[in-house]
Amino acid sequence: LRLHAKQVLGGMAIEASSTCRIEGFELLMGRSLEWHANESAGAKVQRIQAGSSSIQALMSLTFNSALPVAASIAGPILTFLFSRVDLVLFVAVYVTIFTVIQRRFMARHRAAQEVVTAARERAAGRLVEGASNVMTIKSLGAEEQLKGSISGTEDDLRTAQLTVRSIGTRMWQAFQVVNGAALGLFMFLVGTRVLDGELSVGTVFLFFTYFYQLSGALGDTSNLAGTIWEHRINIERMMPLFRDRLLPHAGNRPFP
């Protein structure tokens, strides 16, 4: 069932991506000069390319990454639910703290990623327009002006990307602190049960294996969430291009 769904939905994603690119080009050719004056054509092309590619990427992430990570989280949690009450409470508190930290940093990550996406559109749009008008630019002697413009947009993009990287680094530092404290508490809880003769060595090994699996899967959710947000932002920024509708103008005044 999973393979069949992956094949069907993957084909739908390919069709959707292709349709977005085709209709996006038709949209660029069919809109008025007034519409194109609001934003460069190169930036619009980048929005269409990034958004259409993100449709397939999200579908691939869902089946190849999201579902395995969800299973890796659900398995250990279900295992601990049938163990002692103190371990159940420990896992509940650990997952809750991890989720709170992740939500806090991911809100900042999303805002910074939107800035990165907008900067990437400007940078890529400037490159596309410059490359497609090389002959005109060289004949006008505007090479240095274009180089300065491209350098400025790339500086903005680099600054925004460094901000996203800084947020991700601080988030992982917070996770390491939580994981260290959680591991110490987990060892204490399990160790006291071993000393009391309530747990065997094999059970201790099993619990540690599931705990490391749970902590690793929770860490994977952070990387996965960041990638999903990036693709979602790409799609969100593409869709307004297809929703925009210019009101028809009519009148009887002579032109010009």
How would you portray this structure in words?
By secondary structure, the protein is an all-alpha fold. The chain has seven helices and no strands. The chain has helices at residues 2-30, 33-37, 41-81, 85-132, 134-140, 143-195, 201-243. Helix 6 (143-195) packs antiparallel against helix 7 (201-243). The longest helix is centred in the middle third of the chain and has 53 residues, at 143-195. It is elongated.
Rounded to an integer, what's the Rg over CA atoms? 26 Å
Helix content: over 70%
Compute the number of helices: 7
The number of strands is: 0
Overall body shape: elongated
Give the amount of beta strand, in percent.
under 5%
Mean pLDDT: 79
Please provide the ordered H/E string of secondary-structure elements: HHHHHHH
The main pleated sheet reads as:
none
- The rounded distance between the terminal residues' Cα atoms is 64 Å
Indicate the low-confidence ranges by residue numbers.
Answer: none
Helix-strand category: mainly alpha
List keywords for this structure.
0% strand; 256 residues; single chain; mainly alpha
